[in-house]
Design a protein that fits this description.
alpha/beta, eight-stranded parallel sheet, 34 strands
């Protein structure tokens, strides 16, 4: 297999090549699309023959389809190479047009190639960055294939979808998010001052420190008579769990009582939401506890590294909305992010991406330069302990994930480098001690992310030693942090077909055991992992694939071998139309502890809407904030209104789907541990993108995981059920716009959440506008200029003169705006 050139240095010179890219059509064939690259030598120097151009793309380019005179080669993963087949020099200002086909389709900026770098014949790589992307304006550019029935989102469709929403009176909007079990507020008010006395039990010193910091941020003023008591004790809720709390606010006293310190902490989060800028509080009572014990958020830092401050900030946001599990996806094909002292190569090589001998290749547009790459970085032991302690102080359990046996290329490459180093040093036994690959393996496979060598050889005894060593060090880090480690997630998803079949080591193990297929080998690996974790006092978790087995004639079904409360199955691949919509329920009924991670509702790396400028993938559909809010955990079909549900292509589902889905039985309901949002990192290049993708969807996740069951699934009539969901969504949307998003704006480092673009419809010569979150400010212009926060605020339909260009956007309290919507009287 070809590899990119090796060079430790990337030339710092200005980019000599300008690149633009355009999708030409998606509809000529249903399984591929055609696109065009335009390459221009914008320097004053001739580029010598023999140059190559590397780039990343999530859509596999087809070598046989490229324009004459050029060649495209797949290197590995999402890395491709373009070269000229002739020997002509590339003259200054000379342009080339290169057309080629790729698999599937391209309908948004996320589908475009990115991370280009030029390798001259005899020079260092030169980063060129991302191309200029031509707009997706024609029908054949916006449809995924001939069978794509889902229209591109536009202003008119948004306006129609938002038509049922309205701004509510202040008294009808909840004061606390997630919505508590019980609240009662009167008309009185008290005030807390920075010096307010705080009385607390000795076990609540951490919570008292949090409260003191909250009070210290209040403006100076008269001290007042109101003090705060933090207590441990029985909460006035029948069968209250350990996270339950009472919050009582009277004229002279604020009392927070929790079943545990965690309960007191939860009560303080509600207190923080009620606390006004001047320290004012409404008099009242809150009784509250969560619906689900597990309320999680997953962050993938393997694809793009997230620095420690970014992680801590996400933990703060989680805590503010009472999420209590942080699933830390630390490893994948494209990166290993945690220092393991016994195996330094894991971070010396596995945490670095770029062009060079001791790193992984560029992925997801990370570029040739290693040190400045968004794909480079790792957490030292000290960093990790800092994260664990920060999470513990906020009562968040950190669940580390080390993905294997697939999605493991970073570890495989790092341990191969260790092997080669020790072998060269004359230590063959030490070289083999942690090897994760069979050097004689000729298995032919391709993963979903286009890797050909990303699977661990699970028949090697060194693999068990590797896992045991990593787990041992991780346990030591948790002990150093004083943080609980109850579960380690082992990944286990998307092992490509064909892995292990041509590995002599695997074939020998299978023959020795009398196994007839790779599935038995894989099942043995899962059992060994579970046993290793158990020896360290840690429970096993994995994606749904670890709990499933193929049954002839029935497809993938729960594997009875591993069912038990100590086996945590995270179920993700249940997109509508997948045939796996009820996978979570089947596993729960079969005895597994299940965490709902449904892609169609809880994958926050997916695009919010079908729009060319909306970042994110969309393989399981488009996930709006409303989709997370309207999710019914115990009856997923009930949360999708009859006119809204369809497969990711917008095609209606089989009417018999509900009858075919296995419902949860009574025991199965008790095995649904809770919900988790997933933020995969392929498109999360930086903190700003993490904010945009996570928020406000994270808040909707918290609402559904904590708040009492709204009972939608018990409404048999679909229309009545849809109306009930619409009413509840309207209140939540008001709460977001008028309470929670302004809170995010006031954070020490404000969050860059997504602002929904307005809906606009032209009626009788006037522009009528609305927004998905009623209460957000809309500002507009009619002279073609870009709207800013000082522009006129929309309050009523705007009459448009012929030729006037109406432009409008939604704004947050800091003056940040959404995507601008533009139209004229003749806009279709």
């Amino acid at each position: 297999m070809s590899t990119p050139p090796s060079s430790m240095d990337v030339a710092p010179a200005a980019a000599p090549v300008a690149i633009s890219w355009e999708c030409l059509t998606n509809t000529a064939r249903d399984d591929r699309f055609r696109s065009r690259l335009e390459l221009a030598n914008v320097s004053a120097r001739t580029i010598a023959p023999g140059w190559t151009l590397y780039f990343n793309t999530c859509r596999k380019a087809l070598a046989a389809s490229v324009s004459p005179g050029f060649a495209i080669e797949h290197i590995n993963g999402d890395l491709f190479r373009l070269s000229m087949t002739g020997g002509e020099p590339w003259l200054p200002q000379q342009r080339y047009r290169v057309e080629y086909d790729s698999l599937h389709w391209a309908i948004s900026v996320t589908d475009a190639p990115l991370g280009f770098y030029l390798v001259p014949q005899d020079g260092a790589p030169i980063d060129l960055g991302d191309p200029e992307i031509a707009p997706f304006v024609r029908e054949e550019q916006r449809r995924r294939a001939g069978f794509d029935r889902l229209p591109t989102e536009d202003a008119a469709r948004r306006h129609l979808r938002n038509a049922g929403l309205r701004e509510l009176p202040e008294a009808e909007i909840g004061r606390i998010t997630p919505q508590p079990r019980f609240t009662r507020f009167g008309g009185g008010r008290c005030r807390l001052a920075p010096g307010a006395p705080v009385v607390h039990a000795p076990q609540l010193a951490d919570e008292a420190a949090l409260l003191s910091a909250m009070l210290a941020a209040l403006p100076d003023g008269p001290p007042g008579d109101t003090g705060v008591e933090l207590q441990l004790g029985q909460v006035a809720l029948e069968g209250a769990c350990q996270e339950a709390y009472e919050l009582e606010i009277t004229a002279r006293r604020v009392r927070v009582r929790g079943q545990s310190a965690h309960g007191v902490f939860n009560g303080l989060q509600s207190l923080a939401q009620l606390l006004e800028a001047d320290g004012g509080l409404p008099l009242g009572l809150v009784l509250d506890e969560p619906r689900f014990a597990y309320r999680g958020m997953m962050l993938d830092v393997a694809r793009h590294f997230a620095p420690v401050p970014t992680v801590l900030r996400l933990l703060d946001c989680m805590a503010a909305y009472k999420l209590n599990r942080f699933h830390f996806h630390l490893t994948d094909d494209e990166g290993w992010r945690l220092e393991i002292a016994a195996l330094p190569e894991l971070t010396e090589i596995g945490s670095r991406r770029g062009v060079g001998p001791d790193c992984l290749p560029p992925s997801f547009g990370s570029g040739a330069a290693v040190e400045t790459s968004a794909g480079t970085g790792y957490y030292s032991a000290e960093d990790f302990v800092t994260i664990l302690r920060h999470a513990k102080a906020r009562h968040i359990d950190v669940i580390p994930e080390f993905n294997m046996p697939g999605h493991a290329r970073a570890a495989v490459v790092a341990m191969r480098a260790r092997h080669d180093r020790l072998l060269a040093a004359g230590d063959p036994e030490g070289a083999r001690a942690y090897l994760l690959s069979d050097p004689d393996d000729r298995s032919d496979y391709e993963s979903v992310q286009l890797w050909h060598d990303n699977v661990i050889c699970i028949a090697l005894p060194s693999v068990d030693r590797f896992i045991d060593t990593v787990v041992g060090e991780v346990c030591a880090l948790y002990r150093a942090a004083g943080a609980p480690l109850r579960v380690i997630h082992t990944g286990g998803d998307e092992v490509p077909a064909g892995a292990w079949l041509a590995s002599p080591v695997c074939r020998a193990r299978m023959a020795m055991e009398g196994w007839t297929g790779a599935a038995q080998l894989h099942g043995d690996f899962v059992a060994r992992c579970r046993a290793i974790l158990a020896r360290h006092g840690v429970e096993f978790a994995g994606w749904e694939e670890t709990a499933l087995v193929h049954v002839e004639g029935e497809g993938m079904r729960p594997n009875p071998r591993f069912a038990g409360s100590d086996f945590h199955a995270y179920v993700w691949n249940n997109a509508w139309g997948s045939g796996q919509e009820d996978c979570a329920y089947r596993l729960a009924n079969a005895g597994y502890c299940v965490v709902l991670s449904n892609a169609a509702n809880l994958y926050f790396d997916l695009a919010y809407a079908k729009h060319p400028e909306e970042p994110g993938y969309y393989w399981a559909g488009f996930v709006e904030t409303r989709h997370a809010f309207a999710f019914c955990p115990l009856d997923a079909l009930a949360g999708a209104e009859s006119d809204d549900i369809g497969d990711p292509m917008g095609r209606p589902l089989d009417p018999g789907l509900r009858a075919a889905m296995q419902p949860l039985d009574k025991l199965g309901q008790g095995r649904i541990a809770g919900l988790q949002g997933q933020l995969w990192g392929e498109n999360a290049r930086d903190a700003a993108r993490i904010d945009y993708l996570a928020l406000p969807r994270l808040i909707a996740l918290a609402e559904r995981a904590w708040s009492p069951d709204p009972g939608w699934q018990r409404i048999p009539d679909a229309r009545v059920r849809g109306a009930a969901i619409e009413t509840d969504w309207n209140e939540f949307a008001n709460r977001l716009a008028r309470r929670e998003l302004p809170r995010l704006d006031r954070a020490p480092t404000p969050y860059g959440y997504r602002l929904p673009p307005p809906g606009v419809a032209l009626q009788d010569g006037a522009a009528h506008a609305n927004v998905a979150l009623p209460g957000l400010a809309l500002h507009y212009t009619v002279d073609g200029s870009e709207p800013v926060a000082a522009s006129r605020r929309y309050a009523a339909p705007v009459a448009l003169a012929p030729g006037a260009l109406f432009r409008i956007a939604s704004f947050d309290t800091r003056g940040r705006r959404s995507r601008i919507v533009s139209l004229t009287l003749d806009t279709p």
